[in-house]
Design goal:
Elements lengths: L1 E6 L2 H8 L2 H9 L3 E6 L12 E2 L9 E2 L1 H17 L6 E2 L5 H6 L3 H9 L3 E5 L6 E5 L1 E11 L2 H7 L4 E6 L7 H7 L2 E4 L9 H12 L32 E2 L2 E2 L9 H19 L1 H4 L6 H12 L1
This protein binds 6-chloroguanine.
The site of 6-chloroguanine has 12 residues, from β8.
Length: 292
Amino acid sequence: MNFYVLTLFPDMIEQGLNTSIIGRALDKGLLTLNMVDIRDFAENKHNRVDDYPYGGGAGMVMAPGPVYRAHQYIMEQIKLRKGLTHNRFEYPDKMEADKTVSAETLEENKSEKNQSTEVDKQNSKPIKKQTRVIYLTPQGSVFNQGMAEEFAEEEDLIFLCGHYEGIDERVLEMVVTDYVSIGDYVLTGGELPAMVMIDAIARLVPGVLNNDVSAEFETFQDNLLEYPQYTRPEVFMEKSVPEVLLSGHHAKVEEWRKQQSILRTAKNRPDLLKKAELSQKEKKFLNDYLKK
Ligand code: 6GU
């Protein structure tokens, strides 16, 4: 899977994701992470990408031109399928970057927003497929596991990170397919949200996690939180590991873990518990516990 990030702070994303599990998946070539610096597509002397808002008001707005050209650049790269592993796109100089956005491609993209032609393997007919462009904004739909699963089906994903008071609405209308927020709080830019989303999506790509079962049977899959985990030592500062986990009785361990999941969810996420499917026995367990 190929991630492309349009950002003013490529280092932040590159460094944040190039470690641990995601870093290893990049090394293995399961993922590529391609940074495009929006500033490289500014056309003025000082490489300015922001300007004052029409109508007045506080702060600055990111201009549409650089964002548009940076997106065009990525679409061309996707067409060429230049798979670079966690690297910024290299272009010899600014002229070269500008050259990639010809008048023809600008026209082409007007009529076919973000589309690339792929061949359907079953009937070998060409199919039009949109490359999704995710704009990170507190005004978007709130990201969740279901959305991560949907995005993980894509071959290429483009993330657009805004700063200041946002991006000129016209270019958003032209290139963005999905508006996504990561929660009800305000951050200074889209980079951290993009990293959060990439991490959540990347770990669903086959081969990224060591154990391929673990992504399926985890938190949110069945609307229950995970049960508590323990490792050695058996006694830590006078606190013992729960007896049942030492019993070697697999069915009892499973029952205990499910009960712990139910209790945690009841306590921390009652909203999720309402959506969880519990057996009669589990419902009774919860009710008995709540009565105590
Ligand atoms: Cl996606 N962007 C910003 N700036 N703030 C946020 C957010 C996104 N999601 C939650 N807060």
